[in-house]
């Protein structure tokens, strides 16, 4: 591996940070150019993402382009980034959704403290890239926490009416999970000393350790160290997913967050949770994960149905989309914990697909809010005639959300349900009702906004349709919706080797260590 | 089996998609805005592309006919749609004798309806959108029949559902119409879940979803022995999907509402093509369904019940399109009855003749509605025969065909179904009685529809009458073509009994479909009910003729209409209100779902989950306010506490480590 490619990942992680420094140094008379700067940053990141994709070797299942810098070598903690087929699509999702989000969601008017906002957006991206690319467990935790801070301020400063309540709820929820995870991380690093003679936080090494597990009875299972560790990690991750009953921070955070925050939150941040499950909680502690898989699948199924029912009765458009996220993320839980190769692959795809459809839907909410300053579904109606482009974009995102074949949503949900059905037919039958309920709330929302007679609550006759920036954002997402829907292999083939290896190892280790 | 690689299937599939892009993307760009494409341009483009597919489907037909093998097919293998974790789903399109027939029906009738639409929708402001949807529908419908594996079939299956949604709610500013579209999509989704489960079960048992492989595997005795215990569950799951798409009890409720779409849409989607998808699926998987006599019985009973039930509703409707809608539900019931007794070939035969005469009747009704200024209520029509001569003649042919009057197409297919119910080993003799009864009902309500529309007293208001006009040639031409097919199409399936007298005329369709849907021997005398085939044929003809003329005669006399209906009083009320099924579903499905969702978000989420979280927050605050009392600022207190803490810590350290 040559030296240029091995620093690429670090460039991806720190490019937004470098731009953040530039933004901070921007003199006040140049502040009107900050938006352009942000756009340039996201585009540079996107180009780096493309370079990453080109350079990635799809036939290998190991970590590639590893960049290593000693950090705290005595404790086994190092700066170590690398990429494999699981993190690749998530990094690409981040690098493509970012420019779309910037183009599609920037407030039309003035924004207070714009410089700080821009810096936060950039820091957020660095955090997200870092979390996906870390192959050192402590570094992973470091970036995991970094992500929290910009989001906290974004909701707290630029949020809606109840922003303080929402942001503190978000923060405390996530912190509780994170702290348990931190304890578990230290436990892991500590025990690695016994295994390897010296402490290490290298994920590849840590995943080879095995902890005692006795699944002969529930009481014995709860006495096994593997269970503690698994549950500590899993809790941190499922809060982020979010899994019912730890989901209530999500609707509040979404409703209060500014649109760009919501887009990042739905499109990428939630995936940190499922990525963590996939990368750490399940492969490190496969027996415990398998032992408790029924529980997590059950919670996933409850999430699918319950989230859909909650979405159905919302009149706040943003809250409806937020609950739909709870519902759609439930599928990923079902897929990951089914321990079936097809379903695991489907879960990874679903992470990307949900990022696109939920991100797109939040952008639509943003478009409407920018123009009419309301999110109440009853305030809309009959807009399709006035804003046809928006109606088309909204329809495409709706189709993706209801997982119509030909859209990306199907590419995720179908393998998940098919794979999980092989082992858990009853759960899947219930999960399948989400297919019906999803159609009900999605079409309800579409109809209330776009169809029916023109609303009389607002003067909508001069509503302007999508502008050029918004069109570009929507076209980008649309390409992914149908591109992935029709040609999933073109987008995901580089993950095949990793997923194959991952599935084989995890399934094998979960049954006989 | 002889497989030929060919690009024909792909081209047939792609042309309508290109048409969709023209009307959906290129034309709006060219004319700088939506709803600006002139009607003739939009219609011309759309008709051209679907017509192109039709021409190619004729080539495919010729190729299949000329092929020597037993089960020739043209296959395009485009790329692997899915391929990971042991799940391989190629994007493979296949024209064999069954799908080839359906492709011809879809593109042929599709072309006629596109042509008709160009004139029918001429004055609509969103004609470009209309034609883009129509082309998109054809793409999905073709994918449904061309796809050589169940996920691709499902792709088309859901895709036609989407187009149906878009087209039913085409005039979306009317909330009722938008609701009808939504209802169609959601009810179909319920069925789709059944389809998905059926697919998952099949994958679990067979490890493949390819239609060719499934049907091949089901010739292997070992596989049959293994799958038979699960066959009933698989077949019933798939059939749930069929009840949704093909509007059978209990999921038929969306189809009558679907009539709020433009009439040509009803003709294409809700009569000729999409709603027959369930029948196609069962015919395609007939080796599987053969394994489960229980599932077949369920299908036969559901079909027969739906046929009778919808027939009784049709007789009391006053909206001309509603009559045809319930009639479609009823005829689809006939097709499922045929499937259920094992007469898959006959089901496909009836699918074809029904596509001819029902598309014709719908387009005819469209012509009437067009002429009467969008009036659909038959009680406000009457005596239109002299104003709309072409529409009348063609619709008359359609009516005779659907009623089963001898030698029109419906006669042959319907008769074959009726006779199959008593002549095949899976037949059920009492369903024969239901079938005959429904056939009589069909003739009565069709006669009634003709009478109320074309005969008797003119009940039009003055204003409408002044503008009454026969439709232009672009609309009557498709009517005549379809009338020709409706009149003569039955001769593709002449029963052997009659064929022998007609100089050994073969049952063309039966021979054609045989490699995929094996022909079954029909004995001359029924096994379930000892009736000779000829007796059934003559008997049902007499019943059809009598019922049709009774329908016409009774309902031509307008006074008689109201009197007769009043005489039936409550019965008529129940029928006119469609047995209150919609109201029932509202009570037992819609309202509970609404209540659960309100309960979930307003009670569970707010008070249980959030209540717990906020309660935790409050208790932390409460405890901390208690602890705040410790912060006295007094150094001595702090010193004592520090000492206490230190002692405690030492105690624990000793306890744990020593």
Strand percentage of chain B lies at: under 5%
Q: Report the portion of residues of chain A in β strands.
A: under 5%
Shape category of chain A: globular
Distance between the termini of chain B: 82 Å
> How many strands appear in the DSSP assignment of chain B?
3
Structural class of chain B: mainly alpha
Low-confidence stretches of chain B: none
Radius of gyration of chain A: 22 Å
Task: Count the beta strands of chain A.
Answer: 2
User: Strand sequence of the main sheet of chain A, in spatial order?
Assistant: 1-2
Extract low-pLDDT stretches of chain A. Answer: none
Alpha carbon gyration radius of chain B: 30 Å
- Rounded mean pLDDT of chain A is 91
Q: Spatial order of the strands in the main sheet of chain B?
A: 1-2-3
For the termini of chain A, the CA-CA separation is 33 Å
Give the SSE order of chain B as H and E letters: EHHEEHHHHHHHHHHHHHHHHHHHHHHHHH
What topology emerges from the helices and strands here?
The complex is a heterodimer of chains A (513) and B (658).
Chain A: H1 3-25, H2 34-55, E1 64-72, E2 77-83, H3 87-105, H4 114-133, H5 137-158, H6 163-196, H7 203-206, H8 218-223, H9 225-240, H10 249-256, H11 259-284, H12 286-291, H13 293-312, H14 317-336, H15 341-372, H16 388-401, H17 408-421, H18 425-450, H19 468-486, H20 488-492, H21 496-511
Antiparallel strand pairs in A: 1-2
Chain B: E1 2-5, H1 8-30, H2 39-66, E2 72-84, E3 87-95, H3 97-120, H4 127-146, H5 150-168, H6 175-206, H7 211-217, H8 221-245, H9 254-257, H10 263-272, H11 277-284, H12 286-289, H13 293-314, H14 320-340, H15 344-371, H16 389-403, H17 409-423, H18 429-454, H19 462-466, H20 473-488, H21 496-501, H22 508-513, H23 533-556, H24 558-568, H25 570-576, H26 581-628, H27 635-657
Parallel strand pairs in B: 1-2
Antiparallel strand pairs in B: 2-3
Helix pairs in contact in B: 1-2, 1-4, 2-3, 2-4, 3-4, 3-10, 3-15, 3-20, 4-5, 5-6, 5-10, 6-8, 8-11, 8-13, 10-15, 11-15, 13-14, 13-18, 14-15, 14-17, 14-18, 15-16, 15-17, 15-20, 16-18, 16-20, 17-18, 17-23, 18-23
